[in-house]
From TrEMBL:
It comes from Clostridium scindens (strain ATCC 35704 / DSM 5676 / VPI 13733 / 19). Its main location: membrane. Keywords: Cell membrane, Membrane, Transmembrane, Transmembrane helix. It is found in: Cell membrane. This is Uncharacterized protein. The keyword Membrane applies.
């Protein structure tokens, strides 16, 4: 009876932790999507600037629909959000097949939320910030922080992120960053033919600031090595089962106590630090850990959202 009760308590604690994690991830997705829409609609679009990637493609399609096809659109409403969702539909299927059901569902919901915000957040008739450089910096920081929060919540804004993650799964030498660069080159090459060069230059400045803001917030980008010193067994197995990360073990001996200890090494992202601490402390509260951020990793290390 005691063992059964202890097991039930442990299961409840795990479910509560999972529930809290899902709520936090949902908050990141909603809040981040709103911030992105505010940065783009209130600051960037009124100046006629363009995003890179699939959002930029959606904006170019919107320009074609409104300016060439002369489709009537209510004042203050941007079609980019709707078009962005539509061009992401085949990518959802790709993500489902390669990256799994959970990722595809979360991305579908996040892109849906983002598209709604891009439609409902009104576009000012007069730019809120008239200076282009200032607008690029402020808009890039707001939109980039929003995108970073979405990624921190282990979701994705769709578009080239899905393509990049799928490619990196199949081909380790291809990264999300490389795909982003290629997509941005494609979009801004088109912009260079359609608009004056000032629009392209300021759009590039905005995209650069946005990317820098994403990297500041998206802590999954930061590689972290962990050295764990413990006298108890079972930590390696728990880390492998709960995180899917590989662990290297060494047998050690305390120089002062002459007692056997175990040395574990694991490479993770900064986002996973809290999870590693929880796993280790649940088995050995006295374990000693060293975390080193910003490690360069060359080889078979899985980058995760």
């Amino acid at each position: 009876m005691f063992i059964q009760g202890e097991w039930d308590t442990e299961m409840v604690e795990k479910l509560d932790a999972k529930k809290k994690q899902l709520i936090m991830q949902a908050a990141y997705a909603v809040g981040g999507s709103l911030m992105f829409a505010l940065g783009v609609n209130l600051i960037i679009i009124p100046l006629g600037l363009y995003n890179g990637g699939f959002m930029g493609i959606a904006q170019l399609m919107r320009t074609f629909v409104v300016s060439v096809l002369h489709v009537p659109v209510p004042s203050g409403v941007d079609l980019s959000g709707i078009l962005y969702f539509i061009i992401n539909i085949p990518l959802f299927y790709m993500g489902l097949k390669i990256l799994g059901k959970e990722f595809a569902i979360k991305t579908f919901i996040t892109v849906g939320i983002q598209s709604v915000f891009l439609v409902v957040v009104p576009i000012p008739a007069v730019p809120l910030i008239e200076d282009y450089l200032t607008a690029c910096i402020i808009g890039g920081i707001i939109a980039g922080t929003g995108t970073g929060l979405v990624l921190r919540g282990r979701s994705s804004g769709g578009g080239q992120d899905i393509i990049g993650l799928c490619c990196s799964k199949k081909y380790p030498n291809i990264s999300v960053g490389k795909i982003n660069i290629l997509m941005n080159i494609f979009v801004y090459a088109i912009c260079l033919f359609l608009f004056n060069i000032e629009i392209v230059i300021y759009s590039l400045i905005y995209t650069t600031v946005l990317a820098m803001a994403i990297d500041r917030v998206h802590i999954q980008n930061i590689n972290t090595s962990v050295m764990i010193f413990t006298k108890k067994m079972g930590i390696s197995r728990a880390i492998i089962e709960q995180t899917g990360r590989g662990v290297t073990n060494w047998d050690g001996e305390g120089a002062y106590t002459n007692k056997t200890s175990y040395i574990l090494f694991v490479m993770i992202s900064k986002y996973e630090v809290g999870q590693i601490k929880q796993i280790v402390h649940s088995i050995d509260p006295n374990a000693f850990m060293i975390f080193t951020e910003g490690c360069h990793v060359d080889g078979n290390f899985e980058k995760r959202l």
